[in-house]
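Postdoc handover notes: sequence design on the structure in folder B. Input tokens:
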């Protein structure tokens, strides 16, 4: 098994998580509270409290659920590539194309959420499990020990987030970006 299975949610939980992300997008993380999330989800505040203890927990869980869904998309997209080198480059390209359009995961590059994402999403056991599971898939066919795999996954996700968050001084086509990623990321991962 590449990663733990995605937790199943009730329709009410789905509505709460979608409402939380919608509210954060509209108002910013600082102005959102559980009352606003409950109203947006069309549920009572007590209903939100029956699942989550505070707004940060709701947002973190929404990010985690979206990460599971995104990982499934990565697996489907990259299953046709033969080598770990190709899969890693294409995974980063896929992230660069798709993350900015993902209704929830696009928030990981929001400066107001950066600390929350760092403290409570990728560094949680479940969040890191997703990331390492994706990397386990990417590295199929390569001999890599588990500790090294975790470091490779961390380095790659940090690189992807940096590419998403920071504007490049050089405009690159998709092919040029693939070359850029191949020249710099693959050697760092010892995949030359």
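Designed sequence:
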């Amino acid at each position: 098994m590449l990663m733990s299975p995605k937790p199943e949610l009730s329709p009410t939980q789905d509505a709460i998580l979608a409402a939380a992300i919608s509210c954060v997008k509209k108002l910013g993380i600082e102005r959102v509270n559980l009352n606003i999330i409950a109203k947006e989800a069309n549920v009572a505040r007590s209903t939100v409290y029956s699942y989550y203890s505070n707004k940060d927990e709701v947002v973190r869980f929404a990010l985690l659920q979206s990460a599971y869904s995104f990982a499934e998309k990565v697996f489907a997209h990259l299953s046709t590539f033969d080598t770990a080198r190709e899969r890693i480059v294409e995974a980063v390209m896929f992230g660069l194309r798709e993350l900015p359009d993902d209704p929830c995961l696009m928030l990981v590059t929001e400066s107001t959420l950066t600390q929350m994402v760092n403290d409570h999403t990728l560094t949680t056991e479940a969040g890191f499990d997703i990331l390492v599971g994706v990397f386990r898939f990417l590295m199929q066919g390569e001999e890599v020990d588990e500790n090294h795999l975790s470091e490779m996954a961390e380095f790659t996700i940090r690189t992807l987030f940096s590419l998403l968050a920071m504007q490049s001084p050089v405009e690159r086509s998709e092919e040029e970006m693939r070359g850029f990623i191949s020249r710099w990321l693959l050697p760092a991962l010892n995949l030359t």
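Context for whoever picks this up: The mean pLDDT is 85. Don't rerun without checking with the PI first.
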